[in-house]
Write a structure and sequence with these properties.
The complex is a heterodimer of chains A (about 130) and B (about 130). With about 130 residues, chain A is an all-alpha fold. Chain A is elongated and about 70 Å long. Chain B has about 130 residues and is mostly helical. Chain B has one domain: Fumarate reductase/succinate dehydrogenase, transmembrane subunit (3 helical TM bundles of succinate and fumarate reductases, Up-down Bundle). The chains are: A mainly alpha (about 130), B mainly alpha (about 130). At the A-B interface, helix 2, helix 3, helix 4 and helix 5 of A face helix 1, helix 2, helix 3 and helix 4 of B.
Chain lengths: ~130, ~130
């Protein structure tokens, strides 16, 4: 929180500082990944439906098919970037304290990277016959 | 320097003040489904890692996914995914500067719910027919 001991009003303190200069990039990347998610999610639902009822060897054969694996990797990448941006907005809207906010935004990034890395590792391991 | 307490500044009213409307409900639902999808990625990652770990782990994951609770979570996840997707389409319309008229907004919000419920049921009919 900004210091409460100043004689200056909150508006006076921020006037002239300008924006953080990163809002447009956040907004645009959210839109770009929304478009790619739209395409990749439909494909992902199709892949999951194709996996229904398959025994292990057949499921692995499908997931390790190069086209399926590449689309899965793109889906994971696009979804993780999109969800990180979205959760950051939610955190910034609802977490009041500055310290908790910084920690939550950081934890959000760690979460998105961890989930993405685990998923990418699994798809690559399946693809390369591990 | 003298301590000056900032004046109690007026805050904009929060959720509980407003009468619920379709647009508000779908806006809240967009955030709720987004959060659900966010947390649900842990399950997708776990399922993929299980598949990469071998037949035993994969069979365990499939058994969990096939249980009553597993299917409930899968159903909710698929609905969240499709609802968030339909909500996103609405945002694309708004991003292009269209669809801000009161009646259009209401219709788009209602369509989001109708389309997402219909598509989710359709996906599950396909799943049940295939298995």
């Amino acid at each position: 929180m900004l210091s409460n001991s100043s004689m200056r009003t909150p508006l006076g303190r921020v006037r002239g500082l300008g924006s953080a200069k990163s809002g447009t990039g956040h907004f645009w990347l959210q839109r770009v990944t929304a478009v790619s998610n739209l395409i990749l999610t439909v494909i992902f639902i199709g892949i999951v439906i194709a996996l229904v009822g398959r025994p292990y060897p057949a499921a692995i054969a499908l997931l390790s098919n190069p086209c399926v694996a590449i689309l899965m990797l793109l889906f994971i990448l696009s979804a993780c970037i999109h969800m990180r941006l979205g959760m950051q907005v939610i955190v910034e809207d609802y977490v009041q304290s500055e310290g908790a906010k910084v920690l939550a935004v950081m934890a959000n990034t760690f979460f998105a990277i961890a989930v993405g890395a685990a998923s990418v590792y699994a798809v690559l391991k399946l693809s390369f016959g591990g | 320097m003298a301590e000056v307490k900032p004046a109690a500044r007026p805050l904009s009213p929060h959720l509980q003040i407003y009468r619920w409307s379709w647009t508000m409900a779908m806006s809240v639902a967009h955030r709720v489904t987004g959060t659900g999808l966010y947390l649900g990625t842990v399950l997708i990652a776990a399922w993929l890692v299980a598949a990469a770990s071998g037949p035993a782990a994969f069979d365990t994951a499939q058994a969990i996914a096939g249980s009553f609770l597993g299917r409930l979570v899968l159903f909710l996840y698929s609905f969240s995914l499709i609802h968030h997707m339909c909500g996103g389409l609405r945002h694309f319309v708004w991003d292009m500067g269209k669809g801000y008229e009161p009646q259009t907004r209401m219709n788009m919000a209602k369509f989001t719910l109708v389309a997402s419920v219909s598509l989710t049921v359709l996906v599950w009919i396909v799943v049940l027919v295939l298995r």
